[in-house]
UniProtKB/TrEMBL annotation:
Keywords: Methyltransferase, Transferase. It comes from Cycloclasticus zancles 78-ME. The keyword Methyltransferase applies. The keyword Transferase applies. GO terms for molecular function: methyltransferase activity. One of its GO terms (biological process) is methylation. This is SAM-dependent methyltransferase.
Length: 226
């Protein structure tokens, strides 16, 4: 992976709590975040939970390399959002300027924590559909803004392989959002993947979440071992 191909964009622990309906008891579980990128989720939660691991191929790079890439893409992303405000729900985040402050604040917390967290094993350079963890290594796996969102780039077979891999390493898997990037429609891979997982013996459901920024993205996929 080339860093020039990545659009690093980070979210906070507060947003993770909303996106994945994380309860206080959930936050005490062993958790793996897939595709966390420069989110501050790990940095914030690791202050009270020493069983949090984030995985992302961007972790092959240094903090300064990631910081430089963030500074490069930030104005581009801000312009894109400003030109498409109708695609977002401006409730918890009031406007484009507030969104920029929220995202940059989260990414700064990540950058301040990154080198230390990487040395302690909290940031792991890896990517779906194959992860370097033992079976049932975690109680909860969270996949943020990767599966289903990038349906135009990740085919159905890769989605299913990735979901089965997450189910291999975790007792419960939650994925958010479920809309494809670009058209804000439910991913065409969602129903077939859900059906295949049910046929494999998993308990599969959709659950409403108390978070919506991408318009229509108000549900998460939940998969559990029976």
């Amino acid at each position: 992976m080339q860093l020039s191909e990545v659009i690093p964009w980070g979210r906070s622990l507060s947003e993770y709590r909303g996106m994945f309906s994380l309860s206080e008891s959930d936050l005490k579980k062993s958790i793996v975040g897939c595709g966390d990128g420069p989110a501050s989720f790990n940095a914030e939660l690791s202050r009270t939970n020493d069983q949090v691991v984030s995985i992302d191929p961007i972790y092959q790079f240094t903090a300064e390399q990631i910081r430089s890439r963030i500074n490069t893409v930030y104005p581009q992303v801000m312009e894109q959002v400003a030109n498409n405000t109708i695609d977002y729900v401006w409730k918890d985040i009031a406007n484009v300027e507030a969104m920029g402050k929220t995202r940059m604040g989260a990414m700064q917390i990540f950058l301040n924590d990154y080198e230390h967290g990487k040395k302690s094993g909290r940031y792991v350079n890896s990517a779906l559909p194959m992860l370097p963890f033992k079976d049932h290594a975690f109680e909860l796996a969270l996949c943020s803004h990767y599966l289903f969102l990038y349906s135009g780039h990740v085919d159905r077979a890769q989605h299913l392989l990735s979901m089965k891999e997450l189910c291999r390493i975790a007792t419960e898997v939650r994925v958010y959002p479920l809309l494809s990037l670009g058209d804000n429609q439910v991913s065409p891979h969602l129903k077939p993947v859900m059906t295949a997982l049910k046929e494999s013996g998993f308990e599969v459901s959709l659950s409403a979440v108390p978070y919506e920024f991408q318009k229509g993205a108000s549900e998460m996929l939940v998969v559990k071992h029976v």
